[in-house]
Amino acid sequence: MATSLPEEARRAADVIRRADIVIGIPSYNNERTIGHVVRAAYAGLAKYFPQLTAVVVNSDGGSTDGTQEAVLSARVEANSLMLLSTPLLAAHRLTFPYHGVPGKGSAFRLVFQMAEQLDAKVCAVVDSDLRSITPEWIDLLIRPVLFAGFDFVAPYYQRHKYDGTITNSIVYPLTRMLYGVSVRQPIGGEFGVSARLVKRYLERQDWETDVARFGIDIWMTTLALAEGYRVCQSFLGAKLHDAKDPGSDLSAMLQQVVGSVFNLMEEYSPVWQKGSGSTPAELFGFRFDVGLDPIHVNVHRMEDAFRRGCEELGEVWETVLEKKTLSAVRALAAGLGKNGNGLHLSDELWAEVVLEFACAYRRRSLARGMILRSLTPLYLARVASFVRDTENLVASQVEDKIEQLCLTFETFKPGLIARWNGNSGQSEASPVELGAVVSATNESKIGGEK
């Protein structure tokens, strides 16, 4: 892998030679927040791993706002940390532009390559827009790998009930149903990874796909689960970052993340078809309640996008969804706004929608990009329904509702397996004929989440 490193990174690795720990921070125009993230990483290494050598690698996507300068200038006063022992060596700090497809996954690839080149025992990655990261996060992401034999440490956060809607509505319940392990934040953004799992990631040939973009987090989690690596979670407290209204421009992330989930479903279908139910991944760290930033959600905009989707995507959905499911979706749209009614998209109907989209994606009943794009208005309908249903609920009650959604997905698994291995009987339509219909709803954008 050394030959794949950019020249500047390779020269730095040759000078450093080896390190026990590599911390990766991907970035793109994060000057405002990345200095805090670097300082937290340094403080965590100094406080919890003073006897180990470490490198902090900023893998940058071509920032123009001073992000790399902020990395190099970040300072931590050692005397403010109240260290019990003095670090043997200060952690190295490096910042490089990554090469390849623009996106978070390509940034991670450079970090993993550096970890392998330096023969690191463990690699951790953290987002560059975090405002709530503390030195303890570094300990909680690294210690389970170094001292408890785990290969993959996923984060477990307290998040606002409307932060992480792609996770809560699709990725968490679907991943839990498929692979039988409850990993609460499978696309959380912060992970700890063992040397042997880093090696496995780098062996893969799909770094030029959506894995190089927003698909990287679920790709990492799924490989660890499906291939039998030891997986755990660490409680990190609050995740405060640059969150977005789930009804705003998140469409690219939704398509890349869900597309990655569906692709991995195909690859690992012999694995996930064997089991049923789920068990929680082991959880490290001390759980506590935290305060969270409010998130404004524009429910009416999401409902309007759903209504337009029903008007403009009918032919596409006829190909993707079964008749009973499509009839229920259209009934929701028809009743929207009558007598002041808002959306209520039930757990059962939503599970059917997601699983039927997965099967349509597998059988390529339409162009795959078209299938993914046409999911957007339905996802917005589910989020709008969730917001209305949980408006007056506290965090623990909202978590109970998400748990119920996961259990609903799990009850639908036998039906998914039967549909996956059989013929749905759905008619097929030409992607050329339906292309204009899908593109007409492209302006009803949503976004992804972190």
**Corresponding CATH architecture of the largest domain:** Alpha-Beta Complex
Which superfamily, in CATH terms, is the homologous superfamily of the largest domain? Spore Coat Polysaccharide Biosynthesis Protein SpsA, Chain A
Number of domains: 2
Q: Secondary-structure element order, as H and E?
A: HEHEHEHEHEHEEHHEHHEEHHHHHHHHH
Global geometry: globular
Give me the number of helical elements.
19
Please indicate the percent range of residues in DSSP E strands (runs of 2 or more): 5-15%
What is the percent of helical residues?
40-55%
Determine the structural class based on helices, strands and strand pairing.
alpha/beta
Average per-residue pLDDT, rounded, comes to 87
How do the helices and strands line up, and which of them pair or pack?
Layout (H helix, E strand, L loop, with lengths): L6 H10 L4 E7 L3 H18 L5 E7 L6 H7 L18 E6 L6 H14 L4 E4 L9 H14 L3 E7 L6 H15 L1 E2 L8 E4 H9 L12 H11 L4 E8 L12 H17 L1 H4 L6 E2 L1 E3 L14 H14 L1 H7 L2 H13 L11 H17 L4 H7 L1 H15 L4 H17 L1 H9 L9 H9 L11
Parallel strand pairs: 1-2, 1-4, 2-3, 5-8, 6-9, 8-10
Antiparallel strand pairs: 4-7, 5-7
